[in-house]
Specification:
CATH superfamily: Jelly Rolls
Bound molecules: fe (ii) ion
Number of strands: 20
Mean pLDDT: 95
Number of helices: 6
Distance between the termini: 51 Å
Radius of gyration: 23 Å
Helix content: 10-25%
CATH topology: Jelly Rolls
Low-confidence stretches: none
Structural class: alpha+beta
Shape: globular
Oligomer: single chain
């Protein structure tokens, strides 16, 4: 067998070796890794079924005393991230479990987060001194550095969905975390407070104090979201979309998280789309199928799946309408002028 001819040494091999020894890299032999032609997600799309997760909720409630932990949350992890606690790039998604009477102590951090009430009747989140009840389908923001704590005031176990951007903040090494006190009894003795000023779309109080950085409205009731999804006309592919917005700006609810409620009509699949941003999907109601990259996910209520960036995704409901919550880091990309989207017709 003839041996393949040895690759001739490149004429600049000695120079490259000398540069590397001096901790200098030439651009010309590695520009494809320095400036990739397109994004390439590390993670394959992934799907976690509620029915597989549900037993862990019961076990965590039984085996993990809330007094011993900051949060009784269980975070979905894609092994593509090498054991790091990451659901898809920049984002984590989780479920948090509280037993009746449990308090999850106040804290605050530079990461941005949202909660979405799935099985949370009786739970309350307090954000910056405002009591935010968690009824079916309610979205509650916990913006960066806002104090927040949770309590289950009901008589049954509560479970809600969480999403946050700890992986992004940690990649930027800009995570600050401040624990609150378990003895801060006053923290829990609040009412809705100024949340009332932002409760009604189209009505604003002149001069009301509001932060520049994120939405002054923290709670987005599920009943209103469902009414909006009923009212909005479906797009050409049957998909209805409602965006959660900052009522002052009409933009994303937070500088780093952008959330959408989607209703899929029965039957037809949506046009395949891919985006430079990352998306975590929670199945709010109904059943259906999503094709994400080369995977197909058959999903039902409270399942979670990911759409990694620049990965084609298409969705179809089955047996009736289906509602999804999409939590994205789109706003990060938009602020950096990196938001791009493509659709197949
Ligand atoms: Fe938190």
């Amino acid at each position: 067998m003839p041996q393949p001819a040895a690759k001739p040494a490149r004429p600049d091999a000695d120079l490259i070796a000398a540069l590397e020894a001096a901790n200098i890299h030439p651009l010309w032999d590695r520009y494809k890794s320095i400036t990739p032609m397109t994004p390439a997600a590390r993670d394959a799309p992934m799907h976690w079924r509620w029915r597989d997760f549900d037993p862990f909720a019961a076990r965590a409630a039984a085996e993990v005393p809330i007094e011993d932990v900051e949060r009784r949350a269980m975070i979905f992890v894609n092994p593509a991230f090498g054991g790091q606690t990451v659901t898809t790039a920049n984002l984590i998604a989780a479920f948090t479990v509280l037993e009746p009477g449990d308090h999850a102590v106040p804290h605050r951090h530079t990461a941005a987060a949202i909660r979405f009430a799935t099985r949370a009747e009786g739970a309350v989140t307090i954000v910056n001194g405002r009591r935010c009840e968690m009824h079916e389908g309610d979205l509650v923001l916990t913006p960066p550095m806002c104090w927040h704590g949770h309590i289950n005031e009901g008589e049954r176990r509560t479970v809600w969905f969480d999403a946050a951007n700890m992986p992004l903040v940690c990649a930027l090494d800009a995570s600050f975390f401040e624990p609150g006190s378990r003895e801060a009894h006053e923290f829990w003795k609040v009412d809705a407070g100024e949340e009332r000023l932002w409760a009604a779309a189209g009505l604003a109080v002149p001069g009301a104090q509001a932060p520049d950085a994120h939405s002054p409205k923290y709670r987005y009731p599920g009943a209103e979201t469902r009414r909006m999804l009923d009212a909005v006309a479906p797009g050409p592919d049957g998909m209805r979309v409602v965006r959660y917005v900052n009522p002052r700006t009409g933009g994303a609810v937070m500088p780093t998280l952008d959330c959408y409620a989607v209703r899929l009509g029965n039957g037809a699949a949506t046009a395949a789309r891919r985006t430079t941003w990352n998306t975590v999907c929670l199945v709010v109601s109904g059943e259906g199928r999503s094709t994400v990259g080369d995977r197909t996910f058959e999903w039902s209520r409270d399942d979670v799946f990911t759409i990694p960036h620049w990965t084609w995704a298409s969705h179809a409901a089955r047996g009736g309408d289906a509602d999804l919550l999409l939590v994205t880091d789109r706003e990060v990309y938009a602020r950096l002028e990196l938001a791009r989207e493509e659709a197949q017709r």
